[in-house]
């Protein structure tokens, strides 16, 4: 059955976030008319490096340093007004035309009290804390599911908005009083009203925006946030974020059907990292883990926390290929492995005496099977063709491709836009 529905392409992370999605989107989006975020909020931190300019974006899609694309924040996101205004100001300050930024009327507002609730929830979890970014993401999605969230569309109706904020605070009053710090209604309403004029010109009918673009023949690049293994349904629950980060989340987060999706490109680091708590089967607690952290600059963009580091996990990667329906992959940060003597890929899990899948990642008796590869010492930063990689690096990339069972279309060899080797 042939389909003539116009297609949008997805770039998303297939590990625990920070795979280099922003960097890849920046390189890829010159050919696109729209770059769209579909989920998460300012828990994301996407870094772009072009020449000596370095930019960390939290909410606005990573197409800002290309002139062409419109930058769409989709209905599945949760967005702090303060965070959005600060980011728009920052972008305007470096000369970006911020009229290119559009936000769906379906996106939900994250209020400062969501962040306070997030931190209080974490404290009450004690040793079981998730290690959230403290940005209020979980509480904002909780409000959305509980049907008293406030959307960007609601910002247009000032009178009703004050009532909604009041209801929102009242329904939380028991929690706030147990925290000993209930936000004052007039403060929340006052600060919200003062920010509305700064964002309202960016608010659009999100469904019409996306479909008009598709039907008008515009090319849309969809930018994932977080990573597959942080998905609220299919990640390492409960150590996950509160949204669907997988390819299906792009459909619900933008209001498009699966028939509107073209390619699904998965981004993976050449090793693994994770920030926050939760299962990480290949985590390294030795000098190699420390070396990856130092060489890879593995410190959180949002929180500055050191990222946990470990070997590439092919069991997790194959799982991610499945749940996203990946059509191809991009490997980032291969340069960070230069200089290591030996490099490992986890090829299998065993639990309860038998071979196990990614669902067993949290089992206490988990054993890992590794395949080992020779390292290389060459500087890779000037290489632009995968075929030109030194033989040992090429063998490692081939092993990753065999493990993923989808084509690796590009390998990133540095943070800078141009440092990308293709086929
Ligand atoms: P994102 O959240 O997936 O967009 O990734 P982050 O921006 O949070 O983290 C990726 C980090 O690695 C950023 O500091 C990037 O500048 C950097 N980076 C991306 N690709 C490469 C690469 O191929 N090599 C090196 N050395 N750094 C990279
Ligand atoms: P980008 O888009 C890495 C992690 C947090 C925590 C868990 C829940 O830059 O890849 P949350 O604040 O979402 O409730 O935290 O998810 N996390 C990320 N880790 N990169 C991200 O985004 C992340 N966004 C959330 O560290 O473990
Ligand atoms: Mg990041």
Describe, in plain words, how this protein is organized in 3D:
With 423 residues, the protein is an alpha/beta fold. The longest helix has 15 residues. Strand 19 and strand 20 form a beta hairpin. The protein is globular and about 65 Å long. It contains twelve helices and 20 strands. The protein folds into three domains: 165 residues, Adenylosuccinate Synthetase, Chain A, domain 1 (3-Layer(aba) Sandwich); 91 residues, Orthogonal Bundle (Adenylosuccinate Synthetase, subunit A, domain 2), CATH 1.10.300.10; 155 residues, Alpha-Beta Complex (Adenylosuccinate Synthetase, Chain A, domain 3), CATH 3.90.170. The strands form five sheets. A ten-stranded mixed sheet has the order 9-7-5-2-10-1-11-15-19-20, with helices on both faces. The structure holds guanosine-5'-diphosphate, 6-O-phosphoryl inosine monophosphate and magnesium ion (MG). 6-O-phosphoryl inosine monophosphate (IMO) binds next to helix 4. Magnesium ion (MG) binds next to loops.
- Spans of 5+ residues with little confidence (pLDDT < 50)? none
Neighbour order of strands in the largest sheet:
9-7-5-2-10-1-11-15-19-20
Number of strand segments: 20
Strand content: 15-25%
Ligands, ions, cofactors: guanosine-5'-diphosphate, 6-O-phosphoryl inosine monophosphate, magnesium ion
Q: What's the CATH first level of the largest domain?
A: Alpha Beta
């Amino acid at each position: 059955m042939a389909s003539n529905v116009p297609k949008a392409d997805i770039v998303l992370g297939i590990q625990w976030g920070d795979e280099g999605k922003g960097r890849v989107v920046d390189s890829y989006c010159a050919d696109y008319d729209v770059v769209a975020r579909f989920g998460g909020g300012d828990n994301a931190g996407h870094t772009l490096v072009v020449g000596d300019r370095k930019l960390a974006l939290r909410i606005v899609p990573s197409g800002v340093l290309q002139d062409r694309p419109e930058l769409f924040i989709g209905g599945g996101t949760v967005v702090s007004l303060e965070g959005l205004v600060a980011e728009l100001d920052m972008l305007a300050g470096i000369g970006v035309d911020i009229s290119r930024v559009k936000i769906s009327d379906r996106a939900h507002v994250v209020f400062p009290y969501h962040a306070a609730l997030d931190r209080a929830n974490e404290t009450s979890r004690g040793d079981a804390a998730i290690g959230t970014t403290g940005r209020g993401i979980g509480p904002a999605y909780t409000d959305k599911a509980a049907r008293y969230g406030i959307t960007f569309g609601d910002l247009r109706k000032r009178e009703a908005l004050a009532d909604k904020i009041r209801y929102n605070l009242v329904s939380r009053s028991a929690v706030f009083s147990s925290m000993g710090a209930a936000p004052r209604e007039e403060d929340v309403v006052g600060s919200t009203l003062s920010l509305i004029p700064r964002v309202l010109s960016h608010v659009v009918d999100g469904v019409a925006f996306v479909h008009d673009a598709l039907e008008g023949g515009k090319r849309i690049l969809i930018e994932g946030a977080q990573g597959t293994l942080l998905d609220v349904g299919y990640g390492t629950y409960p150590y996950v974020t509160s949204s669907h980060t997988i390819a299906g989340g792009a459909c619900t987060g933008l209001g498009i059907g699966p028939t509107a999706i073209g390619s699904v490109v998965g981004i993976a680091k050449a090793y693994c990292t994770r920030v926050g708590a939760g299962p990480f089967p290949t985590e390294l607690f030795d000098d190699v883990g420390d070396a990856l952290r130092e060489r890879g600059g593995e410190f959180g963009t949002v929180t500055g926390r050191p990222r946990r580091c470990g070997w590439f996990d092919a069991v997790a990667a194959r799982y991610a290929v499945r749940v996203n329906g990946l059509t191809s992959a991009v490997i980032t940060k291969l340069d960070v492995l230069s200089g290591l003597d030996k490099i490992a890929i986890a090829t299998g899990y065993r639990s309860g005496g038998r071979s196990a899948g990614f669902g067993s990642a949290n089992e206490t008796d988990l054993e890992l099977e590794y395949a080992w590869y020779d390292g290389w010492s060459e500087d890779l930063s000037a290489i632009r063709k995968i075929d030109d990689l030194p033989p040992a690096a090429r063998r490692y990339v081939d092993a990753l491709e065999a493990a993923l069972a989808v084509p690796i279309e590009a390998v990133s060899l540095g943070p800078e836009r141009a440092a990308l080797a293709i086929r």
